[in-house]
Design goal:
With 449 residues, the protein is an alpha/beta fold. Helix content is 32%, strand content 20%. A five-stranded mixed barrel has the order 13-14-15-17-16. It has a four-stranded parallel beta sheet with strand order 1-2-3-4, with helices on both faces. A three-stranded parallel beta sheet has the order 5-8-9, covered by helices on one side. The structure holds 5'-deoxyadenosine and iron/sulfur cluster.
Length: 449
């Protein structure tokens, strides 16, 4: 979500006549986009801003701004910590940034634009991405109020964008060469539940979908040029039969879902107020897997929630084995001020949180390797990004299952191509292979193996 918001702000500033610096050091304006979801993320942003502000001694004309969740959470108090910060903008006021930059350039400083969390949000719809994939925000805020989570406080209640706005944005992206969109929302399957998103004159799709989110998926799939659709994050309650059906029947939807489970223990899930049980979660996984062959599943999990016993942690461990996650983001619980869980005693000490974290990481490494091993010899359709970060001789891209595939480029394959890559060997999070051909072209490469 923050990557998306940063991109929208960059695009607004470029449209206002500014130029994007290639290196941070060249920039006359630096805006830090902050996350509040864990204490460590906030510490990092404060550390970075401290360095940037200290740098003003040598570069007094350089302007420094803060945006995102931490700006929203801390409000005006941020200037007590960072008196040299020029401006701070809350989550629902991104649109105000170009105008704030103008004021700062005229000499104002310490400007703060924080709106009430329930204020109507500025909807980020500008894009600056280069490449062939784009994020599209469809739902802002969150209404769930999981006990540990600061997001509903800092991003406000749910607001779903009208479908026609989203579709216009995606059509424009497609006309600029975007082939893959990822629809974003904190609880993305809740799209259209809290406010109307379809107008009476919007065309209905041919599949007769009734749920607003599946209707949107069908409409996005009909945008010419969009070959791949992803969405994140999911919640088990949103994995309805209609959604599973849409994922199976619309070929553009990737066979991948990011479905955070957070804990494998019913008692902990209840304390977390997640709104589902272990059995509910596993049932959703079962329905997804039986509908889609080669379905890839990724997740988020928290270790060391207040009161989590060793036996409950073992339930988390066993759920991960049963669900057979392709990848998992593992987080140590971090109390967030003002959340219900912050009232509970944070009684799992840091060493124990670290131990649990390491165990899940090690399990996941073995599991990832094993699941990827089964892909050796298969041909995967890879949306090509270009030279890989580590080694520019090698190129990389992503499979529909959202796995990184690395291969040696050949003539006729370009960033944005969908290449057929035959997998030769694997690591827990990476596939390595050879190009066999490119979809939509008659390039066919034969290897004598
Ligand atoms: N402590 C640790 N992890 C958290 N997450 C959200 N809030 C917290 C917290 N207070 C994790 C959840 C969520 C992911 C984005 O961050 O796993 O899915
Ligand atoms: Fe936070 Fe829960 Fe909303 Fe996700 S669904 S943003 S974890 S409150």
């Amino acid at each position: 979500m923050n990557v998306r918001d940063s991109d929208a702000v960059a695009a607004m500033l470029v449209a206002a006549g500014y130029q994007q610096a290639v290196r941070e050091n060249d920039a006359d304006l630096v805006i830090v986009n902050s996350c509040s979801v864990r204490g460590k993320a906030e510490d990092k942003a404060i550390g970075k801003l401290g360095l940037l502000c200290a740098g003003k001694r040598k570069r007094p004309d350089r302007k420094i701004g803060l945006m995102g969740c931490m700006a929203q959470r801390i409000g005006e108090d941020i200037f007590k910590k960072l008196p040299l910060l020029d401006f701070s903008v809350g989550t629902r006021r991104c649109g105000a940034i170009p105008q704030m930059v103008r004021r700062v350039l005229k000499g104002e400083t310490n400007i703060c634009e924080i709106s009430a969390a329930e204020a109507f949000p500025d909807v980020p719809d500008t894009h600056n991405e280069t490449g062939h994939s784009a994020f599209v925000t469809i739902l802002l805020g969150c209404n769930r109020r999981c006990a540990y989570c600061i997001v509903p406080d800092v991003r406000g209640p749910e607001y779903s964008r009208p479908a026609h706005e989203i579709l216009a944005e995606i059509s424009t992206l497609a006309s600029h060469g975007i082939r893959e969109v990822t629809l974003l929302g904190q609880s993305v399957m809740n799209y259209g539940k809290m406010n109307d998103v379809w107008h009476s004159d919007d065309p209905y799709g041919t599949n007769g979908y009734k749920e607003p989110f599946t209707r949107l998926l069908e409409a996005v799939a009909s945008v010419p040029g969009i070959n791949r659709i992803r969405f994140t994050s999911g919640h088990p309650s949103g994995c309805t039969d209609e959604l599973v059906h849409a994922m199976r029947s619309l070929p553009q939807i990737c066979n991948h879902l990011h479905l955070p489970f957070q804990s494998g223990s019913d008692r902990v899930l209840k304390m977390m107020r997640r709104g589902y049980s272990r059995a509910d979660y596993l049932d959703a996984v079962k329905r997804l897997r039986s509908a889609m062959p080669d379905f890839s599943l990724t997740t988020d999990v928290i270790v060391g929630f207040p009161g989590e016993t060793d036996a409950e942690f073992e339930e988390t461990r066993s759920l991960m084995e049963i669900a057979a996650f392709d990848n998992a983001f593992i987080f140590k619980y971090s109390p967030r001020p003002g959340t219900p869980a912050a009232e509970m005693i944070d009684d799992v000490n840091d060493a124990e949180k670290m131990r649990r974290n390491q165990i899940l990481l090690a399990d996941q490494d073995i599991r990832g390797q094993k699941l990827n091993q089964a892909l050796v010899g298969t041909v995967q359709e890879v949306l090509v990004d270009g030279p890989s970060l580590r080694n520019s001789e090698r190129w990389s891209g992503r499979t529909p299952g959202n796995k990184i595939a690395v291969f040696t480029p050949v003539k006729g394959v370009e960033p944005g191509s969908i290449a057929e890559v035959r997998i030769k060997r694997v690591a827990p999070q990476t596939l390595y292979g050879e190009i066999r051909g490119v979809l939509g072209s008659n390039l066919i490469i034969e290897y004598s193996d």
